[in-house]
Amino acid sequence: MKIKFTLLLFLSVCINAVVFAATADTAAFKTANLFQSNMVMQQNKPFTIWGKASPGDKITIKGDWTGKQTTIEADTAGHWRGAIKVPKAKPGDFTPHTLVITDGAKTITLNNLLIGEVWIASGQSNMQYSLKGEEGKNNGVIDWQHEVPKANFPNIRLFYTDLNFKAQPFDEVKGKWQICTPETAGRFSAVAYYFASEIHKNTKLPVGVVLSTIGASTAQAWTNRKIMEADTVLYNKYLREYDNSPKSKEVIDGGFTFEKVTRPTLLYNAMIHPLAGLSIKGFIWYQGEFNRNDKNKYTRLLTAMIKGWRSDFGQGDLPFYLVQVPSFYWNNEDPKAFDYAIFREAQANVRKLKNTEMVVTTDDPDAPRNLHPRRKKPIGLRLARIALNKDYGFGNVQYLGPQLNKIRVDGNQIIVSYKSKTLDGGLATADKKAPAEFFIAGEDAVFYPATAVIKGDEVVLSSAKVTKPVAARYAFTNTAVTNFMNKAGLPAEPFRTDGWADDGSGAKIKVDYKRLNEEL
Q: Coiled-coil region(s) at which residues (predicted)?
């Protein structure tokens, strides 16, 4: 009897061990949280998907749009990654698809998938700024009460990445793919929503947006440590002091603090690295306020960040479209101050990198007194104009406001000419008044407001205080609000033709900006 009981106990333990092992193996199999029902898959590219399983397990991926399937094996750490071809999307085809992933014992089915375009939207608070406001408060977009009910696009899908911080690159993000409705869009980025809806309306393709953003963040927080370590200038500027401080030794948790979103690499590790490899069309970016004192270093930093992201995603020179920060006082009431204009110039210089472009925002009348201006619709639509022209074949969609071509001095006047491709029907002003925010200076480097007259495709500048002008500036102050544009309604880009800068003491110095830009 005792022997029989012992044998039964042994068999029970063995069976339970087998059941437990099978359960553990099955539980180990999963996809990364990024892959869910209701998402959009990037058209005309292999759709890469990954997750975890027991080491050595065979994982099969099959989509209902193809008779073929992909089989991969989980590595020794239990990680697996595979790709399945996704066809080119057909405008107007919103057929829901199904993707089945199985390890043989457990099957994961993703339903209501669309084949279309996927963009990642990132940056700080002005990208995070939501479509919907609160009654009685000065937030949400202009006229949000009427805009939110119109946000009913079942073929636009939205993923809002949960905030997180990590000291080392991480593999997982939290968030949920949702269908674009007034409720879901109301909580989403207004800029990203307007961008997606304009792409969708014009291309008749499904659009998915992955939003990874947090207010008050710096660009170095979104940049891979290895990228900054490989560049002595970036390391000395953004990493050295941090690495030598007690903060770098702290245990990092996911809780929000304004200080933590400025630390280098933490947001990249937790909110970009886990997305890397997702098949996408490109990036849109609205950030800079908290790097405003970096001047030309920002050009170098953002260029490095973009290169790092492109390398991580492994899909070539993915489009990267940024928003130039609008005007703001920054507690400096001096109307001639231009340190923030120098930062905007640093943003503009990022376009030297292939497949990048920038939206100009100096025409927002509310911006100088509001760090979070509510006119987000024009920004989203301008970003969409860039993408429609450069990525979707809409060559008739103008995306550039007037850009400086050259100046010439004619007696006591400066004549400003603009690049022909940025004119789009000619020069104009939004209020039918003379162009504002032009300045000219003589050899003394003192700038005075200029009378500006549009003559054909040029602007003639003059000032009674400058008899022998040598340099011109346009909208090159911290608080400039512009009315000058082309007939497509796109604002002219700020510029300066001089190499002068203020060293803080009031003395004027010469700076070789050409050499500095070449160094970048």
A: none
